[in-house]
Amino acid sequence: MLRVAGRSIWCITTLLSGAGTLACSTNPQAPSAADLRSRFDLETFGEIPYPPDNPRNESRIRLGRLLFFDPILGGEQDVACGTCHLPDFAFADGRQLGAGVGGTGLGPARRVGVSSVTGNPIDTEPRNTQSIFNTAFGLDPSGTPSHLAPMFWDGRATGLEGQALIPISSRAEMRGDAFPGSEAEARAVALDSIIERIHNIPEYVAHFRDAFASEGADTAQAPVIALRLARALGAYQRELVTTNSAYDRFVDGDDEALSPAQRRGLEVFFTKGKCTLCHRGAMFSNFLFRVTASPQAGPGKTVIPGDDTGREEHTGQPEDRYAFRVPSLRNVELTAPYMHAGVFETLDEVMDFYNGGAQPRNPNVSEDLIEVSVRSPLGLTESEVNDVVQFLRSLTDAGSQLDAMLLTVPSSVPSGLTPLTGSGTSGLGNR
């Protein structure tokens, strides 16, 4: 291999009339499918790890879908879970930072606004919205797919049920200024107030009784409780599993599923690129917390204006400062922008960041805090970077084998509100 103007040139020596001749190409031959499968521990998904108290249940899935897209869960009834997790954007929102209560529009076109109750402005959410595709397969601390995997960028909740109700109490996400009192007082009453709303809608009461009928007399008398709301939302989200990417087909034996560039990119991803130090397994994430020092943007989440110390905010431990959960790379092609603050618009920019030794960095993050594997440049050539990006695109499957119901916004919800926002701007995702 020669180096010319910073690029790798692959050369093969041939014999012509007894003389050695170099035939060179900037596109080396891709490794064979059999070679890649034998060298690397390539994984696809197994069976969904259901919680013992929330096995697959069609009634719960359908109830969870209605609740997910119903603004009844929003304090000011103008935002639903699905407002920031849109089917048409791989269950993310396409924005740098989420826009919840008071916002108008959907997807990248959504804009922040003001509280309809107080008229006070509501800022963007502090972090980039992650996709909920394949969240069923998060890993617990032992590295095993589990219903108790860490959730959110900072891991402040475990499992889909554990995280489901937290946005309801967040002012920027779903609560708004609907409930009086101090911040602490408003957070404390938000969930109980939402439960009471749902309990006052006969159609929802009937759905809850049906979905949790196996729990006996208690369900008949008081069907709508917070635990069941969380389990219904978790039941729906857990089924959003995408298993038909080109990568999955390749691992399952389809030699032609990956292009030559994608096969080369897979090899770089697993070797010189050092990507699998964090992004490995079927989810292409180890679900651990790492400091990459990616740039900070937005309102932040700490006492330092505009800063975000990541997991430390949750644990209070200095060793967790600026650490964020490693995101899955499944469907990464569809979920731009990237990093916890949505600072990179393209996969090429992300690759440039890592290839350059984590540059540009958040200036508040000292060198000693940064993950050792990302501090120094990788030395990838332009061709190698392009191949890795092509490989990342092979992880795309926006639900091609899922029941269409799971990917469709309901035309109506039991509250009578307009699905997604309740403000007449919904419609994205209806099919």
Annotate the secondary structure layout.
Blueprint: E1 2-4, E2 7-16, E3 19-25, H1 33-39, H2 58-68, H3 81-84, E4 150-151, E5 157-158, H4 159-164, H5 171-175, H6 183-199, H7 202-211, H8 217-221, H9 226-238, H10 246-251, H11 260-270, E6 289-290, H12 312-315, E7 324-325, H13 347-355, H14 372-375, H15 382-393
Antiparallel strand pairs: 1-2, 2-3, 4-5, 6-7
Give an overview in words.
The protein has helices spanning 33-39, 58-68, 81-84, 159-164, 171-175, 183-199, 202-211, 217-221, 226-238, 246-251, 260-270, 312-315, 347-355, 372-375, 382-393, and strands at residues 2-4, 7-16, 19-25, 150-151, 157-158, 289-290, 324-325. The protein has 431 residues and is mainly alpha-helical. A 3-stranded antiparallel sheet has the order 1-2-3, with no helix packed on it. The chain has a two-stranded antiparallel sheet with strand order 4-5. Strands 6-7 form a two-stranded antiparallel sheet. β2 and β3 form a beta hairpin. The protein is globular, with a radius of gyration of 24 Å. The termini are far apart.
